What does this fold into?
Amino acid sequence: MSDYHNASYIIIFAVQGVRNMAGTGAGGTNRGLYFDDLGAGQRFASETYTVDEGQIFAFAKQFDPQPFHLDGEAARTTLFGGLAASGWHTAAITMRLLVDGGLPVAGGIVGAGGEIVWPMPTRPGDVLRVESEVVETKPSRSRPDRGMVTVRSDTRNQRGEIVQTLTAKLVVPRRPVTEGSHLRDGS
It folds into this structure.
């Protein structure tokens, strides 16, 4: 097995205030799921996204200019054995698929840390989709208006092979308490 297949990269998300457009309707009405709506074992699936050679070249040229992302001929002699998308390109596509509805979280997908692994490369022509599962939910002890949700998201190609696994800790808001809501529950 190649070093690439054994690679594991840790990324720290320092995103605050990101808005999930898929969870926001006309006029800014949020229709995503709150912390209180989520539980371990819940699953979500995204739409699909087709990766083409031009996108791989464009992303690599700007963000990850290595030969195995920029030159198909040169890539044949590398451990990839052919042109491969940057792992960061796969991560960016994954984020887009999650934001577009693959993980409908109220308030946006706001990360507080995570781990990302690329077990195999994304290739030109791959059709990617993301399958996510809630692993754990923990209400915040210091901030009662939110909780921490751990989600595992597998990005798969058209053959069902995992090209990326992201395990992320997300800050998810609790359902807002509206005036008079305490009267409904008998409090």
